[in-house]
Sequence to fold (203 residues):
Amino acid sequence: MIYSLSGNVIYKDPTAVVVECGGVGYKCLTTMNTLRVVPAVGEKVMLYTHMLVREDAMELCGFANKEELSCFRLLISISGVGAKVALAVLSEMTPEKIAMSVSSGDSKAFTKASGVGNKLAQRIVLELKDKVKKMFPSVSNEMQYMPASSGAADEGGNISKAIGALAVLGYSPEDVAPFISGIDPSLSVERIISETLKAIGKK
Fold:
């Protein structure tokens, strides 16, 4: 299993980036969100990777951060969601947006991605909620349907909603507690998620 690639960018197109490592160019299928932060050809980059193994081919998918990789793996574990659809979803939505949409039951957000209809979008939300409940039973009470967009900040409520949403990205309450405790609870849920991920990334 190739965990990551670090080397020079030698080629980019709208669906992939090629990274040269030790004289070998590795083509990584990727998302528009990752491509936006991949540097120009000739510059160094590091991508987290997932290897797809099929009967007729082996392909690498590359991502700019661990959250996007985690979301990709969760998405392809859902019946009817292949790598192409998962990459399309992650091209339209950031991991934070996916977490928010799942925790709020906003299936329509997923239909913006190519290849995702209403039924598949609803299945994605339902199955990701169920997976999170099984992985982190302690946050299952936080994964309740809530309005897709928050209005006035709810001091403790926004923190709780953020913890529930972060569980979609694979972070248990114990993981995020040291980082989320210092964040202003009056911020929006999406901002709290973003600030927490930044703090975790700096560790």
